[in-house]
């Protein structure tokens, strides 16, 4: 019986880690797969002992984990914001135009920054009124009517 090549074993171990990462996403097994493939690459170039293979696997897995994990996490998961949910949209006063009348306590719609936003206000505001954007909570903006003397 012929023995199986260590290169093939490390390569298949890497494939196993990648497939397992797809099934159980922990974003750690991916780096073990890279480490296994690095070990297979080294074995393709030179013959080393099992102890050296394990060291190569460990070091390459840790180096890729430390250097790439935070960057890849921000790519796939996105950056999280530690800011409060209620933040000012801009530090400078911003304006929009009411496209659907706002009748408290209900919502209306405002065109602002090239997009349409659900809007709330403390007073009724008719369509085509210029409003000042006060704050944003998730996808709803708080507005107030902008009077003629303020627009100038």
Automatic annotation (TrEMBL):
Coiled-coil segments on the chain, per record: none
Transmembrane segment boundaries: 7-32, 52-72
PANTHER family assigned: INNER MEMBRANE PROTEIN YBBJ
This protein's name: Membrane protein implicated in regulation of membrane protease activity
Gene Ontology CC terms: plasma membrane
Domain of life: Bacteria
Keyword Metal-binding: no
Compartment(s): Membrane
Record domain NfeD-like C-terminal: where: 95-145
Gene Ontology MF terms: peptidase activity
Keywords from the named record: Hydrolase, Membrane, Protease, Transmembrane, Transmembrane helix
Gene Ontology biological process terms, A to Z: proteolysis
This protein's record includes keyword Protease: yes
InterPro entries: Membrane_assoc_protease, NA-bd_OB-fold, NfeD-like_C
Predominant place of localization: membrane
Topology versus the membrane: Multi-pass membrane protein
Organism: Candidatus Electrothrix communis
